[in-house]
Amino acid sequence: MPTQPTEFALERFLPYRLAVLAHGVSRALGEVYGDRFDLTIPEWRIVANLGHAGALYAGELAERSNMDKPKVTRALQRLEKSGCVARAIDVEDRRQARLSLTRKGQQLFANVAKIASSWEAELLSPLDAGERQAFEQCLVKLAAKANEMRSQGQKNSKSVSAKHGEKS
Predict the structure, then answer these.
(1) Cβ(104)–Cβ(84) below 8 Å
(2) Range 10-126: architecture per CATH
(3) 30 contacts 41 by C-beta, under 8 angstroms
(4) pTM score, whole prediction
């Protein structure tokens, strides 16, 4: 006896909802700092990461900002051209360059971070203090579980590949 396919409600599927929310939030905030500071979303992510973490390699920036390397490269080129980011060749590995904010970049980070913090407070304003705390706890738990599942998935795919004689 054939069974009916399970209904899949995309609009209620959490990964989809989170992706749509993240994209919408990022674009809305991007319009604020884009209009004021002529920054793209990738450029802001780089400035924010360098402002928060200090000097990083391009690969680290790509990973931390969840962007592919070509997008990071294009954003870095524009930020270097504008005088916000400086590149210094790594003395231990001359093929690598450490990227950091210049004084101009640090001032840009401070200005945009102030606006972004106010914008975030407005976004979260419908939530009371308890809801904000619970939301933060949920985000932390979901991020940890997603990382765990990703690690497990990578182990499983390597195991399957090894069984089939594939190279990873």
Answers:
(1) yes
(2) Orthogonal Bundle (1.10)
(3) yes
(4) 0.79
What is the structure's pLDDT at 154? 75
Number of H helices, E strands in the chain: 6, 2
Residue boundaries of the structural domains of the chain: 10-126, 127-168
- To 10 degrees, the CA torsion angle through 39, 44, 46, 51? 120
Q: What is the mean pLDDT of residues 156-167?
A: 60
Residues in the chain: 168
132 vs 125: CA distance, rounded Å: 9
> Percent of the chain at pLDDT above 70?
90
Amino acid letter, 20? V
Residue 101's φ and ψ, nearest 5 degrees, are -80, 140
Confidence of residue 126 (pLDDT cuts 50, 70, 90): very high
